[in-house]
Structures are given as structure tokens and as C-alpha cells.
Design a protein that fits this description.
Layout: H1 2-15, E1 32-36, E2 41-42, E3 50-54, E4 77-80, E5 87-90, E6 94-98, E7 108-113, E8 129-134, E9 142-150, E10 155-156, E11 161-167, E12 171-176, E13 182-188, E14 192-198, E15 213-218, E16 224-230, E17 240-245, E18 250-255, E19 270-275, E20 279-281, E21 283-288, H2 289-310, H3 314-318, E22 375-380, E23 388-398, E24 404-413, H4 423-429, H5 441-456
Parallel strand pairs: 2-8, 9-16
Antiparallel strand pairs: 1-3, 3-6, 4-7, 5-6, 7-8, 9-10, 9-13, 11-12, 11-14, 14-15, 17-18, 18-22, 19-20, 19-23, 21-22, 23-24
């Protein structure tokens, strides 16, 4: 009897339906289940790490997290306020964050997990998560809103780093702009801030030296930051990198960095001397290359329009005045009905419907500020001398950082190339010489045979 019961149980276990192996592939990114602590709470004696819990195992990444800010998970975590790289822990389906100096009392902390968390199948999350909590201070309600722009290309900077330094404590709060360069930084403690927009080239979530940035001081109770135009700051004076002649009276000067786009140099700021006797040469103007190119383009268009106006309209002259021009057809035509046959109970589907107009303003350069430039054009009142060296000095030129100075360079005008030979003369020289020693056989035949027979006849 006991043996029969065991056999029946075995048969029942074999008859149980299990999930088939394989199945459809998992294309969903990791789903955040919760955080510890929750956002917008006050935890006076908080000592543990901030924890992000997921519904599956997440990837630790290929770069390890050694506290240098270069690890894959370290790049995804922005902890504020702190100046150190936080301690990041990976626990399969959990990511923990803790400051290396420990949690400080009566302080507002902000932990942001950026988009980019992946699972073991490389499914990547596209949304970020922010946990804001307090270790004793009241929960803040202030915010900062703005736009970060890369001044080098006049376009919004995607995923740029934003730093808000609270005054006078110098507590640094960090976040990251979205794909359109905009940021909404909230909630933040009340007070005055110095807001930085940083082009984080090495993606370590810190403002490093030699990285392009811009800053604005925002008073307390103000939320709108406006536009932060990032550029590379430099404390040295402007220096000329290369100099070359553009034509017989102009020279193009290239500088090592961008210049102040609001500066316009008078013609006496450029000094040109002939070496070695230092004879001065009169300068007509000094202009940025962008302005010079626009001026020359406008001058060429004006000359072309003047030439077209001076030429007679042959088509108008050939057409009689009594014949009026053809009238314009102003009748409005009904659009072609490209829909299929009308069926009762079935909505009509128009295949030729007009597509909605796409918003392309995000791809257009911003015009709030003028473009940066690093080239100047110097134009003389006389021609450059061949095989001559010139000393060019630009006084009072300012960099984009506002540093004034004098830039100098030596311009060597190359010798004029020799004139090209006449192609017709070259072709004639290549022809074979005419043989003048060859006798006219036809004339000899006529004189010896044909003429005497005619005389005898």
C-alpha cells in the first residue's frame, strides 16, 4: 500500500506542466523597485548607504570603481554636496552610495542615479532617479532652471554638468542637463548660488581645469538662471599662431584661442612695418574673418546686381507691348482625394495626408550671443612686396576671457611665381621643322614634260 502511494505521487509529479525552456528574449531595461531612504524625508541619525533596488541583476560595468570617478557606476552617480568621489557598491540587484567623509548632520543631500543602468543583456535604462533627503534640516523647496550652451558651436550642450555652489558655505550641488541642454535643479536649500555650466569632457562629474565652463551668480529667491554659454577660459594673452597673405593687400592672422567677439579693433591698433628698416605701412582696417567674408560677399552681390541692372532685358525688348503677360491662375483646386472607398462602419484612411511639421529649432544655432572666432584680417593700403618680411603687431586685442594684450608675428611674403608660358607658343615649338631642302616634284614634272608638249602642239 505504501509502495502504491509513492508511485502515484511520482506519476503526479511527472504530469505537472513546467515552463518551456527558452522563451522570448528580455528587451526591457532594469526596473527600479524602490530606494532607501525615500525621497523628501528627514532622517536625523542616518548612517547607512543610500540604496537603489532593481527587479533584476544589473551590470557592474567593465571599468572598476576605485574612487577615481572613472568607474562605470561612478559615472552614473552624482552625490551632492561633496567634493569627493562617493563610495559606490554593487550588490547584484542593488546599488549603494555613501560619501567617503560620512553623512554630516543638518544637511540636505541629493543623490542622483543617471540614465544608463544596464542589465546583463545590455538593456539600458533611459531615465534618471533623484533621492533628496535631510539629516536634520527642513526639506527645501527652491529650484534652479536654465539652459547650457556650447559657445564653440552655438548649440545646447547635451548632458552637460551643472554645479550650484551655495553661498557663503560653498556647498556644491551637482546635476546633469538633459539631451536638449536644459536643467531643472530641485529641490535645493534657499540662498544665493553661483551656477556653473561645465562641458565635462572626461565625464567624471567634476569641474576640472581646462574644461569649458560658464558661471552666473543667482540671488536668493530667484529660480531662473537663463543661458550658460560655456567656453574655454585662459589667463594668458592672445598669441598669433600663423600668418599668411590672402591676396595682394590682405593678410590672415590665426590665433591660438578664441577672441572677444564683442571687440572691434580700430585700424591704428594694427602696426605693420617692413623689415629690416622698420618702415611703417598704412593699414586700411582690421576685421574678424567672419565679418570680412560677409563684407566681401555683400560687395560681390552688389556688383553683380549692378551689372545685371546695366544689361538690357532682351526678353522684354523682344516681346511686343500689345501682348499682355499670361494671367496667373488663382483658382483654388480641391485636393486630390486619395482615400479609399467609403465603407459604412469603417473609418476612412487617407494615404496622402500631410505630415505634421517637425520642430527643428533645437538643431538651429542660437543667436543670443555672436559666434566665437580666432582669425583676424589685416588689409593694407598698398600691395605686399615680394620676398619681403613684415612685422605685424595687434595692440589691445582681448581673448574671450577678457585678457588684453599685444600679439606679434613675422610675415614673410613669398616671391612672385614666374609667368606661365604661352600654350600656343609651346604647341608651335613642339611641331616638327619644315624641310625646305625638299624639291617640288610636281613643278619639275610640269616643266620637263607637259610644257614642251604644249609648245610643240
Amino acid at each position: 500500500m505504501r509502495r502504491a502511494a509513492v508511485l502515484i505521487a511520482g506519476l503526479a509529479a511527472c504530469a505537472r506542466i513546467a515552463a518551456p525552456p527558452g522563451g522570448p528574449p528580455d528587451n526591457r531595461p532594469p526596473l527600479l523597485l524602490g530606494t532607501t531612504p525615500e525621497s523628501l524625508v528627514v532622517v536625523a541619525d542616518f548612517e547607512g548607504p543610500v540604496e537603489f533596488r532593481f527587479n533584476e541583476v544589473v551590470s557592474e560595468g567593465g571599468q572598476p570603481n576605485f574612487g577615481l570617478g572613472t568607474g562605470d557606476l561612478e559615472r552614473l552617480v552624482v552625490l551632492s554636496p561633496t567634493t569627493e568621489v562617493p563610495s559606490i557598491g554593487w550588490h547584484r540587484d542593488r546599488i549603494t552610495v555613501k560619501p567617503r567623509e560620512g553623512w554630516q548632520p543638518n544637511r540636505i543631500y541629493r543623490v542622483e542615479l543617471l540614465a544608463g543602468v544596464r542589465d546583463l543583456r545590455n538593456n539600458t535604462g533611459r531615465s534618471s532617479t533623484v533621492v533628496t533627503f535631510s539629516t536634520g534640516a527642513p526639506i527645501p523647496t527652491d529650484s534652479l532652471i536654465g539652459l547650457v550652451v556650447d559657445w564653440s558651436n552655438l548649440r545646447p550642450a547635451r548632458n552637460a554638468l551643472v554645479e550650484a555652489v551655495l553661498q557663503p558655505d560653498s556647498l556644491v550641488y551637482r546635476t546633469q542637463a538633459d539631451s536638449t541642454g536644459r536643467f531643472h535643479f530641485a529641490p535645493l536649500p534657499a540662498g544665493e548660488y553661483v551656477v556653473y555650466g561645465v562641458l565635462d569632457a572626461n565625464r567624471n562629474n567634476k569641474r576640472d581645469l581646462r574644461e569649458s565652463f560658464d558661471s552666473l551668480r543667482i540671488p536668493a529667491s530667484q529660480s531662473l538662471v537663463g543661458e550658460l554659454w560655456m567656453f574655454r577660459h585662459d589667463t594668458t594673452e592672445a598669441k598669433i599662431q600663423t600668418a599668411s597673405t590672402s591676396d595682394s593687400v590682405t593678410a590672415s592672422l590665426s590665433f591660438t584661442g578664441p577672441l572677444d567677439p564683442y571687440q572691434r579693433l580700430p585700424r591704428d591698433s594694427a602696426v605693420v612695418r617692413v623689415l629690416p628698416d622698420s618702415t611703417p605701412v598704412a593699414v586700411e582696417f582690421v576685421l574678424p574673418k567672419l565679418v570680412f567674408d560677409s563684407l566681401m560677399q555683400a560687395r560681390r552681390e552688389a556688383d553683380d546686381s549692378a551689372k545685371r541692372a546695366a544689361q538690357p532685358d532682351s526678353a522684354r525688348a523682344a516681346r511686343p507691348d500689345s501682348v499682355p503677360p499670361p494671367a496667373r491662375d488663382t483658382t483654388r483646386r480641391a485636393p486630390a482625394d486619395t482615400a479609399g472607398p467609403r465603407i459604412v462602419g469603417v473609418p476612412r484612411q487617407v494615404t496622402g495626408a500631410r505630415k505634421p511639421v517637425q520642430d527643428t529649432t533645437l538643431n538651429q544655432p542660437l543667436k543670443t550671443k555672436p559666434p566665437l572666432f580666432d582669425q583676424l584680417v589685416v588689409r593694407l593700403t598698398e600691395r605686399w612686396r615680394d620676398s619681403t618680411r613684415y612685422l605685424i603687431e595687434i595692440h589691445g586685442v582681448r581673448t574671450v576671457s577678457g585678457k588684453p594684450g599685444t600679439a606679434r608675428t613675422i610675415l614673410t611674403v613669398p616671391p612672385r611665381p614666374p609667368p606661365k608660358p604661352d600654350s600656343a607658343a609651346v604647341a608651335d615649338s613642339l611641331k616638327p621643322p619644315v624641310d625646305t631642302t625638299r624639291r617640288d616634284t610636281l613643278g619639275v614634272t610640269l616643266r620637263r614634260h607637259v610644257l614642251p608638249s604644249l609648245r610643240r602642239g
